[in-house]
User: Fold this.
Amino acid sequence: MGDLTGKTALVTGSSRGIGRATAERLARDGALVAVHYGSDAVAAEDVVTCIEGAGGRAFSVGATLGVPGDVDVLFAGVEAGLDKYGAGEVSLDILVNNAGVMGGVPPEETTPELFDELFAVNAKAPFFIIQRALRIMPDGGRVINISSGLTRFANPQEIAYAMTKGAIEMLALHYAKYLGPRGITVNTVAPGITRNGHPVFDIPEAVAQMAALSAFNRVGEPGDVADVVAFLASDEARWVTGAFLDATGGTLAG
Ligand code: NAP
Assistant:
């Protein structure tokens, strides 16, 4: 599936977790991938090295999201990389808005500062990243935003986080209509609990509890989600736009 040879992609937050698996998968499909990170340059370089070791092409770009000037810093790095590795053509075919932060506190303890940070990283940054990316995205491009099953599955520890994911889902609905005439698709992928290297995944009892939420009785692997993103990035998904793709392993089935 998905020959992305000659295509370019930016995956935000691809120094680890779902983003890393997505960057690796898109590179395996042939895309030149911008591996974006916030703070962990070493991890991002490791992703680039792994992609290159597997015969793919990638470069890393650092930019803290959710702060003033974030999108300018991000695209300065993306465009420099595309210029350097993309034979002088600065063009972005695929954008995956993956970087995100969780809250992890009950509603009573959610401060205005935490609320603002969650919205700045998870909702505001993706909006302005899309706005900026469209300047260099050709017709037929792809935008994929990573939401969460928590827009459909209650977790009171993550109300503010879930609100940000509700916001990001609006991007697919409205941008799909706006960008349809250019053949650009905009879709949402909603992961469920996915092993991302967090220490909780080292506790067997916790993993068993989380696994029980899925119809398959296991937690998701980053590759489970990356494969869904790769489908949406491919030509095979040209007729899918404005969609919400449930990548929760059946968690939302109840
Ligand atoms: P993760 O392992 O926590 O990694 C987050 C990534 O985002 C890292 O590459 C990190 O970069 C980057 N990032 C975070 N805050 C940033 C900031 N302020 N500026 C720039 N980069 C930032 O993530 P994940 O668990 O794979 O989740 C990926 C996406 O899926 C997120 O949108 C998340 O909400 C969503 N999701 C995850 C799960 C799950 O169970 N894992 C479930 C549902 C939805 P650095 O480390 O370099 O700073």
Q: What stands out?
A: The mean pLDDT is 97. The helical segments are 17-28, 41-53, 70-85, 112-133, 159-179, 204-211, 222-233. DSSP finds seven helices and seven strands in the chain.
